[in-house]
Amino acid sequence: MNGAIANGPILSLRNLSAGYGDEPIVEDVSLDIEARTITTIVGSNGAGKSTLLKALYGLNRRFAGTIMLQGQAIEELSPIRRLEQGLAFVPQGRCNFPLMSVRENLSLGAYGLAREVAARRLDGIFALFPVLAAKPHVAAGNLSGGEQQILEMAMVLVKEPRVLLLDEPSIGLSPKNLGIVLQVVRDIQNAGTTIIMVEQNVKGALSISDTAVVMELGRVIAVDTPARIIGDPTISRAYLGRRATASDA
Ligand SMILES: Nc1ncnc2c1ncn2[C@@H]1O[C@H](COP(=O)(O)OP(=O)(O)OP(=O)(O)O)[C@@H](O)[C@H]1O
Ligand SMILES: [Mg+2]
Known about the structure:
This protein is an alpha/beta fold. The chain has a single domain, classed as P-loop containing nucleotide triphosphate hydrolases (Rossmann fold), CATH 3.40.50.300. It is 38% helix and 26% strand.
């Protein structure tokens, strides 16, 4: 419809402040996200990473700032309207409907789509995720942790979002499943989706990312390529090895 925006960033934040109740947690964040890239947000516990993702999806209170998705302002829209505009969010935690089958879960993700469209999208999902195609009738709760995480991502991908927000997709997974989830994130990117994620496994996440965003005390303090972020001794020491430094009291 609007070809002129095709070359600009797919998502732009300007001076975004958001939080809960009376106080912003995330303050004055400005970012441009290029289409078809993977961005990983890193920072200490409580830095505001999840709060920023929730703000993008409209799940908390916005105090100031704008959010443009493909050139359209979305900051006043409800989460459902943002989803309709092409922004999707997979929150932390897995498997919302453990007793339902893989196919039934995916059908829930297709809620609101015309039947033929839903059928075509499910075919596309099964083609993209052979691990799900192999188990359409298995109860979601009986999938492995990694498979459940893939199912959660697949459920929102049924809506064919342009931008996918992932909060800790590998939390609690074994190293093997972490590798599988990261590969799936790559596959999603290759299918044309832009990804913004928060991930505790910083090393693994940065290895597939185009951009790293570092947050501290609710603010973005650095945006750069993963190589340059890892190569910065101050940032690297403070934020990339934090699980090992045990300041978690
Ligand atoms: N629903 C809420 N109501 C009030 N305060 C909240 C809420 N959720 C988070 N906070 C506060 O906002 C701050 C940032 O939390 P947030 O969850 O965004 O951090 P995070 O960077 O995602 O941390 P982690 O790495 O531990 O997931 C914390 O001080 C937290 O206590
Ligand atoms: Mg978090």
